Amino acid sequence: MTRSSSPPPEREQAPRGPSLVVLTGRETIRRVRPRASHRLDLRLLLPVVLAWPLVAFVGLVGPVWLVASGAVLALAVGTLVATASARDRPAPRRAPPPRGPDVLGGEGRSRGRERWRRGVPVGTSPGLRSLAAACAVLALLLGAAAGHRAVRSAGPLGDLASERAVATVRAVVAAEPRPVHKRGRAGPDDAPGSQVTVVRLDVTELVARGRTSAVASPVLVIGRGPQWSALHWREQVEVVVRLAPAEPGDDVVAVATPKGGPRVIARPGGVFAAADAVRARFRAATEQLWPDARGLVPALVVGDTSRTPPDLEAAMLQIGLSHLSAVSGSNVTFVLAAVMWLCSIVGLSRRWRPAVAAVALLAFVVLARPEPSVVRAAVMGLVGLLALSTSRRRAGIPALAGAIVVLLVWDPWLSRSYGFALSSVATLGLLVLARPWGLTVARRLPDRLKPLGPVLAIPVAAQAVCAPLVVPLQGSVSVVAVLANLLAAPFVAPTTVVGVAVSVVAIIWVTGAGWLAWAAALPAQAIAAVARWCAGLPLGSIHWGDSAAAAILLAVLTVAVVLTAPWAWHRTRQRPTVAVAVVVLASGVGAPTSTVAWPPPGWALIACDVGQGDGLVADNGGGHVVVIDTGPEPEPMRACLDRIGVTAVDLVVLTHFHADHVGGLAAVLERPVTEIRASPVLDPPAEAARVSRLAAAARIPLGELRAGEELTVGTISADVWWPARRIDAGSVPNNGSVVLTMHVRGLTVLLAGDIEREAAGQLLRETLLDPQRWGRIDVLKVAHHGSSNRDDRLLDQVDGRLALISVGKDNDYGHPAPATMKALQDRGFQVHRTDLEGDVAVVADGEDITAVSR
């Protein structure tokens, strides 16, 4: 008997959307997964973005009572909006009853039809929900700011600071002491051991005017001497200070100047002492590494930047690698990824891996110091790891917004931190742009190179979103930042992971950790090489300006480029000739031709932009030069000599021994140097001794210059007019500056060093600068960066009409003084300043003398 068979009924295609159970005849149940949504979840991020500036510019500056009132008002408005939105339900949806197969079964079908008859509310209005969320976030953040400020301001410390009172404080060291590299500070108090150190203290007890008070207020102490730099984190100290009020919005209540050294009354204990021990052993294990690696490995692993060479730090800042010179979110991500990988290798259950990762993260934070910057990096690293997770990527933006809220509640002053803003924006770029850009790049790469798509996209996305925030800090847009990050990226993970392993091994075996440290030194040295090479590239950055308008313009242009890039790429493929023509035209219009033609033909003297200091170069023909002073640091002077194309230095003149005039000598000595001549006034002694050591190490003769001497070096000649004697009034080093007239390419330049009114008066009284003796002056190098401490009678004796002021931008000394600028302008001088124009070259063309800015 044959059974006839009929084909099974066709299955109906399940609709996309929420999971459904589909029944067709006797077919088994099939579950359809919902289609993943690619929409960005901005419901929490937008309120955070709106509340952030209000906290930064109102919550931390306005009166506490006003901030608290604002928090209450925002909470009330949010509650009213939420209540109103809950009542604002749209009309019921009515749709025809479902047809076709019974998708819910008999009972489910009846329930569905009943819901169709009643209508189902779809929820509250999205606009009202967003407004309620923004009010809630604002209320939370303003309330936190008001609470923190109320706790910190409790007690008499704020009033005492306003009165600039002297007090004895007991406090806990809240952050690692930070040495301040003085950029050109020149004064009579420069002496051995006068290194300035900034220390943040959490004051717990205050004794002033016969009254002892318990407080909980942070204070910033600016101390001098090695005893301040020797303090350790979490030590309890006692010190007598003179208080001064902090600026509005600062994260400290007062700024203190110590009246003596600190007295340590208690050492850190428990886990803090253990962390100190690990850090000390880690430093010992990395002590023998190359200088760059000795600075970078501890910086990346434990946040210890004390040994990073200043020129390397400047190079990394210049090309956008500064996030690699300290603990950042990327380091935390690498450490956590390595921990999770080890957990999988040893076969640890997935249930226990988050707990192990949390313990590792806690240990890492304690080791690197749980300061705001480290905690911020840890949180952003967690969000970054979440962004890289394929299963939780959609939760990245809400997690980032939640992390920002938590951090601002914990420390509202992070809202005014550039580092926090850069970390947040970079993480947002990773979440929003890195993956789609990586997929787009990967589609256009060969199969073997497709994994490079995300690698190429991450630094491009980070540079795109961070550039508008970096512009106010640097005033320029780095052209090589993406290239530098791409080249350095492969070396960051091994340096960090191996460095952490070094710190673990160092706990039990410092010698073995020292051997292992060389494995971390190799990639660290590669990072340093990338930084130095990229910093030396021509046209590495574009001057943009550091104003708010410049930052907004760059942000608008960046958004425009991102939005129009797909259309431009499509049009480029259709009409490549037009695209090439547009690129060539834009390059021709935007390329800075002055840099390409630097130095200008016929130049005689260049005032290098070395910051707050002096560094001048006179042309002696054929790549040979005479250098007058070397600036405060090696890197700016090295860059200036590189731009000029100097091959040999026939003479170095050091007008005096302040750091802003001799700090960059090491960079000059990298080229062949014939001789060094300096002031006979060996003050400050420490800098004079350092110059002597550098000259001896390079085997270069070091001599003196005194009044009455004449010099001839190649085509350059000079007459020395000062110092004739030591002047103990005013600043001894400044008044001991070498003053000379230099004759270069038919020009006479009066180089006045840093002399002040006492030395200028001596020159005038002794008629050493008689115009009949020194001849016509074409160019004046203004003394002491345009300081108001001057004698205008000296200007009256100079018939030149071109004045150069070598000065640092936004310096702390008010140089050049408005009175000095007026005195020069009243006498008809054409003034050129390195802080506004960069390198300034004096060009001689027959009788014409012009100044050309780089």
Break the fold down into its secondary structure elements and pairings.
Layout: E1 21-22, E2 30-31, H1 45-59, H2 64-87, H3 105-118, H4 126-153, H5 157-162, E3 166-173, E4 178-180, E5 196-208, E6 211-224, H6 226-229, E7 236-245, E8 254-258, E9 263-266, H7 271-285, H8 291-302, H9 310-318, H10 329-345, H11 353-368, H12 372-388, H13 396-410, H14 418-443, H15 452-474, E10 476-478, H16 481-506, H17 510-535, E11 541-543, H18 548-574, H19 576-590, H20 593-596, E12 603-607, E13 616-619, E14 624-628, H21 634-644, E15 648-654, H22 659-662, H23 665-668, E16 676-678, H24 685-698, E17 702-704, E18 710-713, E19 716-722, H25 732-735, E20 739-744, E21 747-751, H26 757-765, H27 771-774, E22 779-781, H28 792-796, E23 802-805, H29 818-826, E24 830-833, H30 834-837, E25 840-845, E26 848-853
Parallel strand pairs: 6-8, 14-15, 15-16, 16-17, 21-22, 22-23, 23-24
Antiparallel strand pairs: 1-2, 3-5, 3-7, 4-5, 5-6, 7-8, 7-9, 10-11, 12-13, 12-25, 13-14, 18-19, 19-20, 20-21, 25-26
Short structural summary:
The protein folds into six domains: 10-37 and 89-108, no CATH class; 40-88 and 124-151; 154-180 and 193-268, Beta Barrel (OB fold (Dihydrolipoamide Acetyltransferase, E2P)); 273-546, no CATH class; 550-591, no CATH class; 596-853, Ribonuclease Z/Hydroxyacylglutathione hydrolase-like (Metallo-beta-lactamase, Chain A, 4-Layer Sandwich), CATH 3.60.15.10.
Give the DSSP E fraction (strand runs of 2 or more residues).
15-25%
Total number of helices = 30
Strand numbers in spatial order across the main sheet: 17-16-15-14-13-12-25-26
Topology, number of strands: 26
Instruction: Let me know the largest β-sheet.
Output: 8 strands, mixed
Structural class: alpha+beta
End-to-end separation in angstroms reads 102 Å
- Uncertain ranges: 1-6, 9-37, 100-124, 181-194
Average of per-residue pLDDT values: 80
Give the helix level as a range of percent: 40-55%
Basic shape = globular
Radius of gyration: 33 Å
Tally of discrete structural domains: 6
Main location: membrane
Domain Metallo-beta-lactamase: 612-809
Transmembrane segments: 40-58, 64-84, 127-147, 324-345, 397-414, 420-439, 451-471, 491-510, 515-535, 547-569, 578-598
Protein name: ComEC/Rec2 family competence protein
